[in-house]
Amino acid sequence: MSTYRPLHDGWTLAAVSKDVRIAGVAATVPGCVHTDLLAAGLIEDPYLDDNENRLTWIGRSDWDYETAFTWNADSHDRADLLCEGLDTVATIELNGVAVAGVANQHRSYRFAVRELLREGENTLRVRFASPHAYAEARRAELGHRPGAYEAPYQFIRKMACNFGWDWGPAVVTSGIWRPIGLHSWSGARLASVRPLVSGDGHVEVHVTVERATDAPVTVTAAVAGVEREVRLAAGEREAVLELRVEDPRLWWPRGYGAQDRYELVVRLGEESWTGRIGFRDVRLDRTGEGFTLVVNGVPVFVRGVNWIPDDCFPARVTRERLAERFGQATGANVNLLRVWGGGLYESEDFYDLADELGLLVWQDFPFACAAYPEEEPFASEVEAEARENVARLSWRPSLVLWCGNNENLEGHADWGWQDRLGDRTWGAGFYHALLPAVLAELDPTRPYWPGSPYSGHPDLAPNDPARGTTHIWDVWNREDYTRYGDYRPRFVAEFGFQGPPAHTTLRDAVSGELAADAPLVLHHQKAHEGNAKLLRGLAEHLPRPETFDDWHYLTQLNQARAVTFGIERFRSLAPYCAGTIVWQLNDCWPVTSWSAVDGDGRRKPLWYALRRVYADRLLTVQDGAVAVVNDGPQAWTGELELLRLGLGGEPLAKETAAVEVAPRSVARIPLPDSVAVPGDPSAELLSVRLGDRRVLSFFAEDIRVAFPPAVHRTEVIPVAGGLDVTVTAETLLRDLALFPDRLDPASSVDDMLITLLPGESVTFHIATRRQLDPAALISSPVLRCVNEVRP
Ligand code: BMA
Known about the structure:
Elements: E1 2-6, E2 12-15, E3 25-26, H1 33-39, E4 63-71, E5 78-83, E6 86-87, E7 89-94, E8 97-103, E9 109-112, E10 120-128, H2 131-142, E11 163-165, E12 168-170, E13 175-176, E14 180-185, E15 188-197, E16 202-211, E17 217-223, E18 226-232, E19 238-244, E20 262-268, E21 271-277, E22 282-285, E23 292-295, E24 298-300, E25 302-307, H3 319-331, E26 336-339, H4 348-357, E27 360-364, H5 378-393, E28 399-403, H6 408-414, H7 417-421, H8 428-442, E29 448-449, E30 470-472, H9 474-477, E31 492-495, H10 503-509, H11 519-523, H12 530-539, H13 548-572, E32 579-582, H14 605-613, E33 617-622, E34 625-630, E35 636-646, E36 651-661, E37 665-670, H15 673-676, E38 684-690, E39 693-698, E40 712-719, E41 722-729, E42 733-738, E43 748-749, E44 754-756, E45 761-767, H16 774-777, E46 783-784
Parallel strand pairs: 25-26, 25-32, 26-27, 27-28, 28-29, 30-31
Antiparallel strand pairs: 1-14, 2-3, 2-4, 4-10, 5-9, 5-14, 6-13, 7-8, 7-10, 11-12, 15-16, 16-19, 17-18, 17-20, 20-21, 22-23, 23-24, 33-34, 34-37, 35-36, 35-38, 38-39, 40-41, 41-45, 42-44, 42-46, 43-45
Helix pairs in contact: 3-4, 5-8, 12-13, 13-14
The structure holds beta-D-mannopyranose (BMA).
């Protein structure tokens, strides 16, 4: 018998620090100080304007959360205070008596408190010490460690990006960020359930029991009609129950088969644990120093996106919001999310949704872009958090890889850290010894990779594209995006290009004039010389923007083009290259960043580009050939049509070739000179068609193409749920896009970045509840194309 009672009501928040006079603020639990102060009207929204700058005192202050609750003695042996997540440096007091002091956001805690409970009214207080002060004190004790940012985020076990990142504000939080409650129980309880599942139907359920009494207990496990039972004699705490399901239906990554799952129920008396397990195997194929995920014996080409915490205040991330974001990932034909190391071990909802959708998860341990101290208290904290989370996630079919950290091996090797470190620790012991040992003990069922980028051996240069995983950042920082074409990588775990958020998102976040270099707009651009890099990145391709509206459209477009260029290149190299993980799917606030979906959940042009370039079937012109990329389950057969055209659409040369491309493979069809060599590169293009796919490839960059000024006819028709906008091209229209959010913030469009030849037409569907002005809808800055921008 046990009961669980959430303690989420009646909380108040007060500042402890003397120079901050805040008390008696109604607090939301789970939540954090920032969101409580915001709800109480005591601070401005940290996501608007440059309010962030005036709120740094929050992370430098100490805070008390306090509540009262009634408790009546019951017949249970035990009453435990269960804290599923405390952010971060907290002392817990029950009725004025110290229960514990903790300092790790990535752990949960259980404290036996029956002795401290009183009949009737009880008070619970959680006092948070300043995370900044804590981290600075550890840094002073242990000695400085280099990192990509000055903030001391590597000296506290808390999500690193909370201290500010090159896409995120510094909003250093404190709070009870996950549920808290009272668990009363008797006899024995399931302290941990760790199922290890394999593709042959085998389940090994490792159970640890916590006891209040010594009586023998029985643990059972059941899945798919198969049951096991183990009796634990007095004092015994560990059990392993082995079950075998004959011929199980397998769990597959999306695009490879169904996501069959089976309910596994583990019981101890009336207590139970339930998980929907999936039978599958995963291994890493390192043949030739490559990096190929193999699921159920089938190599998977990873079409991934990097995931960052979806909000700087993670308690606000509901299951609904995750479901929306995951829908945006699967909608863009993504099959893997990499949970990046500057963030969190995510919630049960996160992995549930991934399991359900067949979205693979690559999970970094939470270490990013810094040298981390291995001394106490961190050695013990890291081990404890790893043990807890590895056990918690052991049975998740979607989780296919544990990775030691983000860019710390590279930082140590290539960013000059060694000179500054002297003989101080930097985390090597975590990535090369501790974490693999924890996994070997608790979860040998999935591969471990010590960091990303990494080449497979500590002595090798970590960021060698020819080995293991690579991160390609020279493009964003220094080089034109065509530089992706010089790469022959095995697996690209990060690469990307920035673009601004949707116009409405920026408009809502910033007051005053919108200009690329307006101080408040720049506050929402965190990358070093970010706006200059945006302009440098488009200079070789697109007209130089003269107005804010042109800047907004062209930089968003260039982001989509840059990433498209990279993915087309890398996919054409499959299976030598076995995956791409775009930096980044999402944002945590309104900002110009590498994301495909902005901080208000709006899809940027990059999202539409990803959907096209991550589809099973892709046609791309690479090195004088058409790469026909077929990553689907069926052969792709048909007649490839190659047309060299004038800009008016007039055919200048035509070739055809019969092609048959086996499932999950790439064919290269050399381009005959008749279509590959233009008479005038500025006035011609190549059309490549196979089945329902058509791509138009230009012989010159847009700035050197003699585009005619855009002329089109449009028709706007009200339909169920919104409007259909049909655009018919009278001249070539390059990268047509519609931005209906400028007229209705809640609206969206179903497609964009479509190039039409004269005479062709396309119908966009706009989802909106409003009556939109048709004239505004079909003109700039809502309806755009490249050749309508005045050069
Ligand atoms: C990589 C990531 C992040 C960063 C991104 C863009 O270094 O791991 O740290 O946000 O590049 O600079």
